DNA sequence: CGGCTGATTCGCT
DNA sequence: GCGAATCAGCCGC
């Protein structure tokens, strides 16, 4: 028994809260009909209208406006925003808030749950399957070709299986790799489940 | 159109 | 701890 996260989960005007609440949810891909999945253990929140670490916000001027790359973030909630980072890595985000508000949650880590053999193969048999945002997409088979996908479709979605990490096991920290964002780089919008508290996931 | 840069990862020092 | 890999987006000329 599992519940697909409803639009009302994504449409809320609080991307930081959503990033925290996504911890413990199961992220599922069915690329090419092959199921792979894992519980979300690390996220980061990006807020379009006032956060210079967010792609939607020009980090020099502070102006927020859509570009061809970031158009998905300005669209309706509950879709996948996938972009290419450093010319190599595909990074998966969940779009939140109403259309016009460019908020998104970056999926940075999973606890592997389903399709481990496929994920191992996609990861070229490296020991780290789904830690790190670039590794998550590689294991799930997600690329920029999946940008804009509705998370209620049959290729990529997020399920609520009732797993709720205890609040005291959730660590908040500044986001990774956004030093250019000035004061916004200090916002503690990175969330992860303390690895030592993850015995429930096995 | 040229140049710079990045929400990263991995291997080598 | 450092730097290469690798390229689309974005800015400025």
Q: Find the count of extended strands (DSSP E, 2+ residues).
A: 9
Number of helices: 5
Helix content: 10-25%
Output the radius of gyration: 16 Å
Structural class: alpha+beta
Distance between the termini: 18 Å
What's a quick, concise take on this entry?
The chain has helices at 7-10, 15-21, 71-74, 116-122, 133-140; strands at residues 3-4, 26-31, 34-46, 80-85, 89-96, 103-114, 156-160, 170-173, 190-193. With 202 residues, the chain is α+β, with helices and mostly antiparallel strands. 44% of the residues are buried.
How would you characterize this protein structure?
The structure is a single chain. With 202 residues, the protein is of the alpha+beta class. The chain is built from 5 helices and 9 strands. Strands 1, 2, 3, 4, 5, 6, 7, 8 and 9 form a 9-stranded antiparallel β-sheet that branches. The longest helix is centred in the last third of the chain and has 8 residues. It starts with a strand and ends in a 9-residue tail after the last strand. The structure holds a DNA duplex (13 and 13 nucleotides).
């Amino acid at each position: 028994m599992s519940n697909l996260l409803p639009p009302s989960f994504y449409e809320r005007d609080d991307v930081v809260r959503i990033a925290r609440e996504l911890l413990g949810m199961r992220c599922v891909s069915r690329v090419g009909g092959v199921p792979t999945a894992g519980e979300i253990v690390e996220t980061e929140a990006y807020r379009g209208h006032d956060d210079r670490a967010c792609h939607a916000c020009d980090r020099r001027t502070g102006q927020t406006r859509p570009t061809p790359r970031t158009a998905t973030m300005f669209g309706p909630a509950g879709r996948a925003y996938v972009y290419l980072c450093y010319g190599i890595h595909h990074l998966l985000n969940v779009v939140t808030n109403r259309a016009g508000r460019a908020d998104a949650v970056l999926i940075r880590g999973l606890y592997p749950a389903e399709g481990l053999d496929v994920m191992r193969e996609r990861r070229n048999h490296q020991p780290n399957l789904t830690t790190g945002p670039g590794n998550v997409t590689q294991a799930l088979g997600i690329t920029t070709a999946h940008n804009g996908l509705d998370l209620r479709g049959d290729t990529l979605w997020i399920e609520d299986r009732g797993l709720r990490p205890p609040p005291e096991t959730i660590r908040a920290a500044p986001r990774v790799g956004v030093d250019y964002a000035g004061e916004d780089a200090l916002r503690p919008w990175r969330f992860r489940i303390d690895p030592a508290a993850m015995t429930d996931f096995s």
